[in-house]
Amino acid sequence: MRCKTRYCNSTCQHDHWRRGHKQICKKIHRGGNAEQYNADKKCKEAVAIAVEACADDTKGQKCYICLEAVHPRTGEGLVRGCACGDRDGVSSPELGVAHVSCLAEQAKILFEEGEENKLDWTAKNARFGQWYSCGLCEQDYHGFVRCALGWACWKTYVGRLEVDQVHQMSLTQLGNGLGEASAHEDALSVKEAVLSMSRRLGAREESMLAAQGNLATSYEMLGRLKEGVRMRQCVYSGTLKLNGEEHRDTFAAAHNYAQTLLTLKKYEEGKSLLRRTIPMARRSLGESEQITLALRINYAVANYMRTGATLDELGEAVNTLEETERIALRVFGGAHPLTTTIEVDLRSARTVLRTREAGGV
Predict the structure, then answer these.
(1) Within 10 A of 155 (CB to CB), how many other CB atoms are there?
(2) Contact call for residues 104 and 153 (beta carbons, < 8 A)
(3) pLDDT tens track for 98-129
């Protein structure tokens, strides 16, 4: 049987041959060929990193799924990367603690049941959400746990045909997970592949917009802000046209676009967009929804960061951040990235306000 290993270029191929391709080729073949072998290897590495990062948080706990401290098959330790454990002002260290392998198996079984029962795509898509969202607190995973689950998702579905939408969805989860772990160059490559695949296969408009939005995030994290803001504007306009102004996806696109505008110090342009969007998000999604909070945080940032902001604007920024911090602590807990972001912005806003009140600039 001829080898099916694919290389990025001839230099990579010759280097691999020099390091003993013939010796490891059989091992790769037994592991499901190159893509599956690589996905399994990378997933194992990502799980180890996530376990180490969560070690202090999960010490002395057991997995809420298998009820074991150490996974009986993989030997891996525990993780927690959601909003469980520190919500509503109460610390519950046992909540949300699990093995990545248990979370992955749970998500896989749930989605397979949807496929076997021939559920409609909306229902199956909701089940697929278990790959990136906690089934207990219903909040997205973050950090290294999100990355490990991204690799677990990709290794589960890597063997599916490219035309199978689940193949693209799993690759999307991998790209987003890599971004959560700050592997932005790797995330960019994956997200570019997803967008290219979407265009080649004629994906639905919402899938195209999602792929562009994910790619814009990597542009911004790599400092390519002009490319990012252009793509954010296109995604916002496209989402607004597709779903209308009071749809969750439109609010998310508005938040991302406004955030990029603020990063480019286009404060008035960002505030204009946020003034239109925030009242609708509060009415449609509620005060405790993550997107609503993020929109309000952006507006507060635009107020205290803008040169020439009035004392009233600075006071409004502090009040808004204090209120959103209370909500975030109750809903997401103190360790969630949204909560820690608010804390940083609140310290900065208070400093600016005190300085201005004392007559400084």
Answers:
(1) 23
(2) yes
(3) 999 999 999 999 999 999 999 998 899 999 99
